[in-house]
Amino acid sequence: MTPMETLLKRFRSFRPPTLTGTENSIGCESWLDGIDQLFDSLDYTNDRRIKLVIHQLQGVAKNWWNKTKRENENRGTEKCADFANFKQGNLSIEDYVSKFDSLLKFAPHVADNEEAKADHFINGLNPEIFTLVNTGRPNNFTDAMDQAMGAEAGFLMQRGN
After folding, report:
1. Fewest CB within 10 angstroms: 117, 137, 146, 159, which?
2. Does this model's pTM top 0.70?
3. How far, in Å, CA of 111 to CA of 118, rounded?
4. Are 124 and 146 in contact (CB under 8 A)?
5. Which of 67, 30, 36, 59 is CA-nearest to residue 49?
6. Distance CA 39, CA 8 (A)
7. Which is nearest to 93 in space by CA: 60, 128, 58?
8. pLDDT digits over 26-72, tens only?
């Protein structure tokens, strides 16, 4: 039995309330209070709570969850495409890094590999900064970011900004 199966079996042994989605607001609040009390008494983390509460949804509530889950997965796919196509454009290096980091979570295959992360970051830089950073070809994200910031600072000093 997997750890999740064991956890689910233990959770169900407490006979947690279910939600069908046809309850009135008082019924929904009552369900939420009951499930919260159970989770609190079991001292479950938020991650565990989410995984377990899904099993307590039935009927309309389950349909709502499945639709919401699909929409979120589609949004994740779109964000992954946004990351794949992301370029510096008019952004400062600082803003580029910030946006790059926010989109990175949608590309775990890149986030988990320092060299791939550095490559993707470098390839999205504007041409003049790309050339300077790519010359030294850093093999990790931190070095790539530092070189890009240095290159940008050099350009700004050169322009008198």
Report:
1. 159
2. no
3. 10
4. no
5. 36
6. 12
7. 128
8. 999 999 999 999 999 999 998 899 999 999 999 999 999 999 888 87
